[in-house]
Amino acid sequence: xxxxxxxxxxxxxxxxxxxHGPVFKREFFNLEFTFVTGAELVxxxxxxxxxxxxxxxxxxxxxxxxxxxxxxxxxxxxxxxxAHDLLMxxxxxxxxxxxxxxxxxxxxxxxxxxxxxxGHESVHVTDSMAKLTLEVIGxxxxxYSFGSFERATTHPFVVALEDVLNHGQRLVTRPPMAGGFLxxxxxxxxxxxxxxxxxxxxxxxxxxxxxxxxxxxLGLMLDSDVLDPVNVRNQVLTFLAAGHETTSAAMSFTLYYxxxxxxxxxxxxxxxxxxIGDAEPTFEQVAKxxxxxxxxxxxxxxxxxxxxxxRVAKEDTVLGGKYEMPAGEPFFVxxxxxxxxxxxxxxxxxxxxxxxLPEQVRSxxxxxxxPFGTGIRACIGRQFALHQIALVMSRIxxxxxxxxxxxxxLRASEGLTFSPIGLTLxxxxx
Length: 430
Ligand code: MNH
Fold this sequence. Notes:
Radius of gyration: 21 Å
Bound molecules: manganese protoporphyrin IX
């Protein structure tokens, strides 16, 4: 999802925010964004009584593939509430406890692959993390393995899914293609991709119809008759699209920041050693890795892997007593800029996990940190992602000394998500 547009529009806009914020407009091809970057205004926008989620064009264009799935459903569509209420229990603490052993199993596959490289060749962090999160969501959500670690190349399902999302992005960011033929060919190919994705998901569902459905996401959906089969398919694709790259990129950024600062790496590892030791962590132990959790939050502060989300006023209003906000006109919360707002002090670029010590969190406005969006339409997978990231980081810290190549400089690609470009690590077994 990162290759389609060689752009850094969101990153440029973030640099402009200090001067032009907390509210400013910018155009991107034929799209216009009204950015909001100040913590106070974002706090106001979080009020679900006055404002609601807006399905922004970049999401809207995914509707041919994921329709009224949770992420792209309009607020007025009945399936949003139905699916939300049905699926919430699948993201509860007790559900995480059930997914934990599967997550550990996928960690073993990662370690097997990385053990082969340790000591003599660098590992490609973003590729490995993408394989890992795809396996985790496939197996915990639907009892399906993509065989990512056994493959030399990316699974065609992932290629098709990324093509579909990229196709959508191109539609909103480029003027309609002049010579109809190319446009027609792209549209046909998109149809083929969607048909292929639907075919695979139908196969996964067919394998589960009848018999024991189990307690995972798919099992919950199949056991109830609340959602129709097309909507179930939309949800399956939604979880694969929304739960995979956001999480893997967050792991990659966290690994970068740990490896970039030996002192921080050392504190994280000391904690892992004292809480877990050498064995595989239990569910409860992962929850006790407080320093590691702060490092993950700090990484999501500097690189919120979803660059932002969009809000719209339910009725004409004035934001912050100053900015006219007519009903129906969307405002985009630009997360990397919000996360560098004045409330973060005078060195916002500095990576410092202790910003997330409880007393420091209490001293900031409540809405200065929003990597998972806000309100009723916030990320349903937040706990799932955070548990998984902490678990995977702890396994890597237990097992390897990891260093960055001497000449590595962090740069992020951007598309629907941010991701570190060309990140590799050199590993030696501990
Ligand atoms: Mn997730 C919504 C970020 C992991 C499934 N997610 C959102 C939103 C943000 C977000 C921001 C709000 C979008 C909007 O307002 O338009 N999500 C993340 C990040 C990570 C992440 C930064 C990882 C890190 N998300 C996951 C995982 C899953 C998932 C893992 C699934 C397993 N997210 C969703 C779904 C929604 C969502 C589904 C839509 C929820 C709703 O509207 O009801």
